[in-house]
Design goal:
By secondary structure, the protein is mainly beta. It has two domains: 3-7 and 14-332; 333-544, no CATH class. It contains six helices and 34 strands. The chain has helices spanning 3-9, 54-63, 379-382, 413-419, 513-519, 521-530; strands spanning 37-40, 68-72, 77-79, 89-93, 97-107, 111-113, 119-121, 139-142, 146-150, 161-170, 174-178, 183-187, 190-195, 208-210, 215-219, 222-227, 246-256, 259-261, 269-279, 282-284, 289-292, 298-303, 306-309, 321-324, 328-332, 335-339, 359-362, 366-370, 373-377, 389-392, 396-399, 404-405, 434-436, 441-443. The protein has a 29-stranded parallel beta sheet that branches. A three-stranded antiparallel beta sheet has the order 7-6-8, with no helix packed on it. Strand 6 and strand 7 (119-121) form a beta hairpin. Helix 5 (513-519) packs across helix 6. The radius of gyration is 24 Å and the shape is globular.
Length: 544
C-alpha cells in the first residue's frame, strides 16, 4: 500500500464514499495430515540453500505444493543482522503456510552513525522519536529489516493464507505487508523496538500493512516502541493525516485481545476504506485511531477497548478518534482518555489547532458513541479556548443515553448534549481516580486509570447488559458474547448491569469480621460505606 496514498486520502477533497459492512470472522488455518513440515533450527536468518534456517524453510514452503508448516524450535533467538535480501525484506511468502513460532524471536540490531559522530540504535533514538529516518548525511551501519510480504504485486493472492503463531521480534523495521487479496492471521507474539533504519530520507513502514481486499487478523499480540518515520505530517484544514502502526486501505482488519503502546507512529491505527474491528484491545500512549473512505466505505468498530493518551505518541494531531469522508466509527463500551498536557504543542500551528482532541467527526464522517466514556484532562491548561469534541465539514458526533462525555470549560453540559444530539447524555459525577495537585489532574497508570469508581457516575449504569439482555456485548469479529473486559473482570454484574466504558469495576470487598472487631464501631460504619448497593442510586441512570 502506498503511504503517499494514505496521506492523500486524508486531505481535503480526496475522500470517496462507500457502504457499511460488519467484520468477517477470523480464518483459522488447520494443518492437513499430509502437510510438509520444515523445521527452523539455526540462530541466524540464512539463505535458501542453508538447511535449518528460516530463509530455507520459507523457500521450501513456497516451492512445495499445499499448505505447509514451518516449525521453529522453542524459544529460538534468530539474528537477522547479516541477511542478504532485496529492499530489506527478509521474505516474500507466495504459498499458504502455517508458521509455528513457539516463542521464537527475530532479532535485529540496526544502527546508523550521525554526521556529528553519534550512533543511533534501536534503543537510542537520536534527537527525537520523529527522526528515526536516515538522512543523506548519516551513514547506515546495520539496516533494519522487515519480516515478510504476503503475496506478490499485481497478482491474484486470494488463495494465499498465512497463519503465524507465537513469533516475536526485537529491532525490525516492520512485520508484514499483506498484498491484494491475501490473508494473514497473527496470534501471539511481542513486537518491539521497530525502527525505520532502512533507506535515506525514507518514509517508514507500519508494523502491519494491508492492501485492497486483504484480510489481516491479529490476536493476542503486543506492539511497542514503534518509530517509523522522520517528521510530523500536516494534512490541511479539515483532516489530519494519520500514519499508523497498523495501516490498511480497502481491506479488513480484525484486531483483538492486543496492545499497542509507547509508539510514535503518528497514530496507532489508520484505516482507509473497508472495515476495521478493534475488540478488547488497549491502545496506550501510541496516538489515536482514524477511519476514512477510499474505494470502499470505511467502518470502524471499537468495542470493549481502551484508548489511553497520556504520553507516548505526542504528535498531537493524532491523539483522537477521527472519522472522515462519510466513514462511520462505532465506539461501544470503550474508554477514550486524554491528558492534554501530554500533547505536543506543534498542533498549535495548523488549522485544527488541537480542536477535537479526543473526538473528531469531519468531512461527513459519523462517530457513534455507545455505552462509552470520554474524559479529557487539563484541556483548559494546554489549549485554552479550544474544544475537546468537534464537528468539521458536515461531520456528526452522536451518543446514546448510556454514554458519559465529560464537560470542559469551553464545552459545558448543555453544549455537549446539543453537540451529540442527545439531551440524556451523562456528563456529571466522578469517573476515575485522579491524581495530581490543585492545578494539574493526572490519570493513574492502567488499569487503575481506566477503572470506574464504584458507586459513581460510570458504575452499574448500563441495564440489560447480561447474557440475553438488550445491551449484551457482541464481538463484531466472530459474533460471540464478550464476557470479560481487558483485565479479566466479568463484563456485567449479577443484576445484569454494566459499567460505562471499557472496564467493569469491581465492588469493594468487605473487611474481615476479625478486623471489624478491632476497628469497633467506626469499622462498622466504614464497611457500610464501602459496600454500596449494586443498583446505582442516581435515578436518572436507571433506564430499565
Amino acid at each position: 500500500m502506498s503511504i503517499q496514498r494514505l496521506v492523500t486520502m486524508l486531505t481535503l477533497g480526496n475522500l470517496p464514499i462507500f457502504p457499511t459492512v460488519i467484520a468477517a470472522s477470523f480464518l483459522l488455518l488447520t494443518n492437513p495430515a499430509s502437510a510438509d513440515v520444515f523445521t527452523v533450527t539455526e540462530t541466524f536468518w540464512g539463505t535458501p540453500g542453508q538447511a535449518g534456517t528460516f530463509a530455507w524453510a520459507i523457500e521450501k514452503a513456497n516451492t512445495t505444493v499445499g499448505e505447509d508448516v514451518i516449525e521453529v524450535n522453542d524459544g529460538l533467538d534468530i539474528s537477522v543482522d547479516f541477511a542478504s535480501v532485496p529492499e530489506q525484506w527478509l521474505a516474500t511468502i507466495t504459498e499458504s503456510v502455517r508458521i509455528e513460532g513457539n516463542g521464537a524471536t527475530l532479532i535485529g540490531n540496526p544502527a546508523y552513525a550521525t554526521t556529528g559522530g553519534g550512533e543511533a540504535t534501536k534503543t537510542n533514538i537520536v534527537a527525537s522519536p520523529y527522526r528515526p529516518a536516515i538522512l543523506d548525511s548519516d551513514a547506515i551501519v546495520t539496516p533494519a529489516f522487515s519480516f515478510a510480504r504476503i503475496g506478490t504485486r499485481e497478482a491474484d493472492n486470494s488463495s494465499i493464507k498465512v497463519d503465524i503463531t507465537d513469533l516475536g521480534s526485537d529491532g525490525l523495521a516492520s512485520i508484514a505487508e499483506v498484498r491484494t487479496g491475501a490473508t494473514l492471521s497473527v496470534t501471539g507474539g511481542d513486537f518491539t523496538n521497530l525502527v525505520n533504519y532502512t533507506d535515506s530520507n525514507a518514509v517508514g513502514r507500519g508494523v502491519f500493512q494491508a492492501e485492497a481486499n486483504a484480510i489481516l487478523n491479529i490476536s493476542d499480540v503486543s506492539i511497542s516502541k514503534h518509530y517509523p518515520f522522520d517528521t510530523a505530517i500536516d494534512a490541511g484544514t479539515d483532516a489530519v493525516a494519520f500514519f499508523g502502526s497498523i495501516i490498511g486501505e480497502d481491506a479488513q482488519l480484525n484486531l483483538q485481545n492486543s496492545t499497542i503502546s509507547q509508539s510514535f507512529g503518528a497514530g496507532a491505527i489508520a484505516w482507509v476504506g473497508g472495515d476495521a474491528n478493534i475488540v478488547s484491545t488497549v491502545v496506550e500512549d501510541a496516538g489515536g485511531i482514524s477511519i476514512s473512505d477510499s474505494q470502499k466505505k470505511g467502518e470502524l468498530n471499537l468495542v470493549n477497548s481502551i484508548l489511553y493518551m497520556t504520553g507516548g505518541d505526542d504528535l498531537s494531531q493524532t491523539n483522537r478518534i477521527q472519522v472522515a469522508g462519510d466513514a462511520v466509527a462505532n465506539v461501544i463500551a470503550s474508554s477514550v482518555l486524554i491528558d492534554a498536557l501530554s500533547v505536543d504543542s506543534r498542533c498549535m500551528g495548523i488549522a485544527y489547532t488541537c480542536n477535537g482532541l479526543p473526538l473528531t467527526a469531519t468531512l461527513g464522517g459519523v462517530l457513534n458513541f455507545n455505552s462509552s466514556v470520554a474524559v479529557p484532562l487539563n484541556a483548559e491548561l494546554a489549549f485554552p479556548g479550544l474544544n475537546s469534541y468537534s464537528e468539521f465539514s458536515n461531520g456528526n458526533l452522536l451518543a446514546d443515553d448510556f454514554s458519559f462525555i465529560l464537560g470542559t470549560p469551553t464545552q459545558n453540559d448543555d453544549m455537549i448534549r446539543s453537540l451529540f444530539d442527545n439531551l440524556n447524555i451523562q456528563t456529571l459525577g466522578e469517573t476515575f481516580e485522579i491524581g495530581g495537585d490543585d492545578t494539574i489532574d493526572l490519570f493513574l497508570p492502567l488499569p487503575e486509570g481506566a477503572t470506574p469508581i464504584f458507586g459513581e457516575a460510570l458504575s452499574r449504569v448500563v441495564t440489560n447488559a447480561g447474557i440475553g439482555g438488550l445491551n449484551e456485548l457482541i464481538n463484531p469479529i466472530d459474533g460471540n458474547l464478550i464476557l470479560f473486559d481487558v483485565y479479566g473482570n466479568e463484563r456485567f454484574s449479577s443484576s445484569g448491569r454494566r459499567d460505562i466504558g471499557a472496564v467493569q469495576g469491581l465492588a469493594p470487598v468487605p473487611l474481615p469480621s476479625s478486623l471489624l472487631l478491632l476497628m469497633g464501631g467506626m469499622g462498622v460504619l466504614l464497611v457500610r460505606a464501602r459496600t454500596a448497593p449494586e443498583t446505582n442510586p442516581r435515578s436518572t441512570f436507571d433506564r430499565t
